[in-house]
Every structure is written in structure tokens, then in C-alpha cells.
Amino acid sequence: MSDRECPSAERYIARSSAIAARLVGGEMMIMSTADSTFFTLNEVATLIWQQADGRTPLSEIVDKKICQEFEVTPDQARRDAEHFVNELSQHGILQVSEQPIISCAPPPAEAP
Amino acid sequence: MTSIARSARTESVTVEIGGMAIALHSKDAAFRELLVDRYEGFISDSQKSQFQLAVDLAQPWAMTGSDDDVRVRKQGRHWLIQRGDFQARWNPASGRGQVRQSHNPYAIDSVLRIVHTLILARRGGFLFHAASAIRDGRAFLFAGISSAGKTTISRLAPPDVKLLTDEISYVRRRGDRYFAFGTPFAGELARPGENESAPVATLFLLEKGPENRIEAVPKAEAVRSVLRNVLFFAEDRDLVAQMFESACEFADRVPIRRLVFAPDARVWEGIH
Lengths: 112, 272
Hints:
Largest sheet of chain B: 9 strands, mixed
Oligomer: heterodimer
Number of strands of chain B: 18
Strand order of the largest sheet of chain A: 5-1-6
Helix content of chain B: 25-40%
Shape of chain A: globular
Distance between the termini of chain A: 52 Å
Strand content of chain A: 25-35%
Largest sheet of chain A: 3 strands, antiparallel
Strand content of chain B: 35-45%
Strand order of the largest sheet of chain B: 3-1-2-4-8-7-6-5-17
Radius of gyration of chain A: 14 Å
Distance between the termini of chain B: 41 Å
Largest interface: A-B, 18 and 16 residues
Structural class of chain A: alpha+beta
Number of domains of chain B: 2
């Protein structure tokens, strides 16, 4: 059975509350308060991060935001988004669920 | 009566760094003499002490060694600070703590640095891997990895420059401004800094090169550089978040530039 015939389950993503984050000079900077791991996100990853409200499916974020705002094919955008989500979830920076996530940290402030 | 004489009578030596006076209590007169010698220029009147550390000396064989990594973790209301050559407890609410260590200056030096980072973290300040100096009433910080040139630029400083440290800078926030203070924490220069302070004018990120030039640094890189150079040990979520915010605030308010420099004294011509 091909992937086309068996679509993967929908995924919902939410910002963890165990982080500190700021948008600085157009780059999202995130520090895990659990292990002090530090990440800088590129523009695409920043957009996904900002949309990670726990209620919007990842596929919708990719289709309606990433593919609209960046010149990228849907397949490539989906692969990149999955890779990004998997990596950040391993560090506890994003929560991932097949159901909507109720509790989600508010989006971080932008540095002046 | 001198302050040192008073301290001897009270079995304590008060070390004031960054305007934070910590009284170090020890019944061992030889250890108190060691402290007075080690922190020369930073010894203060015991009546000014805001914080207290009681030092209990153990035999060297009673400590496990000095190769372990330092651990700083919260247990109830206390911070537990541990390394092979010392164990310490610090109560941030009371400003009091205890240290158990052998008779050497290195352990108490580390304890003091860590206690200062814990005190400063709640006040938006930090210790920073950087040389610092005062010129014309303004402080300049020079950050970089161990071979970046902190000691070199300190050695090249002209006579009108007051060196605050060639290794660990002390930064405090007052309102929207940051101030750098001298510290006794020396690097290769092996001499304590001047016990003075001034508002921070610029943080330079050091990089050795064929000629002297100053370059702009993008804001995001500036924040990354500050975070890389802050001394921070505590395994505590609230304090990590606080430190992250402090680094961002500092990068917002203090100009941060890259200083590419050739190792000769002319580099100081562009620093004023």
C-alpha cells in the first residue's frame, strides 16, 4: 500500500511552556529551560513555531502558511516541517499530538 | 582600627565585588590571611556585608578531588553547589550559606563566582567571559573564547585605561543601563582588576586578524554571543529563562561590535 493510499494521521503542535523565546532581528531564538539547549530558527521554522497553537493541524500550517509565503513545493514543505517538528519535539520544545492540544504557551514577544 | 583588624576580631573577611559585600567567616586565621591576600583590593569593611558565607575547612583527603564538574541545583529553599573540592549551600532568601572545602583559594574562588551569578541572575546582571576596562569614564567589554585575545588586548592597554579584569567581567543592571565592575578574577595576566565601575559603552567580540577594524554585528548574532559568554551554572528552569531574558535585554541596550585586531597597541586607537 502506498503512502498516497494511507495518509498519515493528522498532527497538532504546540509550543512548550518549558522554554524561553524571543524574536530578535527576524530570527526566533529559543532556549530550553530544561537543559539550556539553544536554537535559532530560520524564517520557515519561525513561521511554523508561531502557528503552533495546538489547535491548527500541521498540514494546514504547511498548506495555508508555508506554501503561501515561501516558494516551496507542498511535498518539500511537508518534509521540512516534519523534520523540524520531530527535532524540536525531541528536545521538549514542541509538543506533538494526534489530538488538539489544549494548553499552549503564548507566542513570544518580539525584541524592539 | 582598620577594617582588616576588625575582620580578624570577628573571624571574618568581607570581600566586596560589584558592590556586593560577602562576609567569609572562618575560624582558621591562616585561611583568613589567605583570603585577605587573594582578594587584595576587594576587601571591605565587615559592617558593609550584605551576605554571609561560613567556611568550614576540611582535610584535603576528606574531599573527593577537583576534577568533577561543578553542579548547582535547587533543593527546597537552598542552592546546593558541589564540585570535587568543595560543597556549599546557599539560601538566596536569607543571603547566607555554608562552604566545606580544603585550605586552598581555588574552591572559595569558584564558590564566590557561583554565588555572585545566583545573586546577579535575579537582578538582570551576570558574570561574563570577557576582559573589561574603563576609558574616559566608560566601560568596554572584550569577549571571546580562550584564544581570542582577552589577555592580549588587556596587555596592550595604554596607561589611561583602567583594567577591570582580563578574564571574568562583572555586569550589573541599573534601570536601563549596565555597569561593569572590576573583579579579582584574573586570567593569564594573573593580577586582579581595578576595583572601579563605569557604565558599559560597548561590548566587543574579539577576533584576531591582519588589521584593526570594527564591524557591525547583526542583532541575532549579538544575542547568541552574549549567551555563549555568560557564566551560568544553575540547573533551574526559572533562572535559565531569566538568564535568557537578561542576555536579550543586554543585547538590546548595549552596542555590540566585532573587533578584528592585530596584536599591537594601535587597536586601542579605535576604542573610546
